[in-house]
Amino acid sequence: MDPPSRVAEQGEVLRGHRRRLHRAFTPHSVVEILDETTGEVITEPYRPGRVVVTSLFRRLMPIIRYPTGDRAEWTGTKGHFRILGRAEEGVRVGPVSLYSQDAQAAVTAADSQGRVMGSQLVVRRWDGRDGLILRLATAPGDDDPAELEVLAKEIIT
Asked: By three-state DSSP, how is residue 28 classified?
């Protein structure tokens, strides 16, 4: 079963053999599935996209089009959607979402020599708290610890 926090964001988990099926908490929330390239709202069944949720519980400061970090598709049943997995857009660290493109922009800005060939965001838990590891890959032979330490400090500051 999906963790309670994800269920609360998106809607009710349908029981039984349809474990990855959900339905929105209407009329208190609006679930939308957006095309991953154009951002347009998807209404037809079985077309995958990324999930955003608008919560109508909070009237003074509603949460509008919150990206859950999930990919989903509508099923043939009105209001029901199937979770397909996580979107490639970012990671969740405690209550904060860090988007991959923001992390990549920080790396690119700090890496003026173009040494970084790839990166990976990894969420870990230490002492009951979430933490984030940013792994960087450089070209083979580009492994001087002192220079890499300077690069790492430039990225995180």
From this structure: coil
Measured distance CA(20)–CA(93) in Å, rounded? 23
- Give me the sign of the Cα torsion angle 38, 99, 153, 116: negative
Q: Can you count the helices (H) and strands (E) in the chain?
A: 3, 11
- Which residue is listed with tokens 């660290």? 93
CA–CA distance, 63 with 121 (Å, rounded to integer):
26
Structure tokens at 46: 């079985």
Provide the residue type at 155 as one letter: I
pTM: 0.54
- Other Cβ atoms closer than 10 A to 18: 13
Q: What is the pLDDT along the chain (157 residues), one digit of tens a residue?
A: 333 334 344 455 545 545 678 988 888 889 999 998 899 999 999 999 999 999 888 878 878 898 888 899 999 888 899 999 877 667 778 888 787 778 888 899 999 888 888 888 888 889 988 888 888 888 888 888 888 888 888 888 7
To the nearest 10 degrees (0 to 180), the angle between helices 145-156 and 100-110 is 130
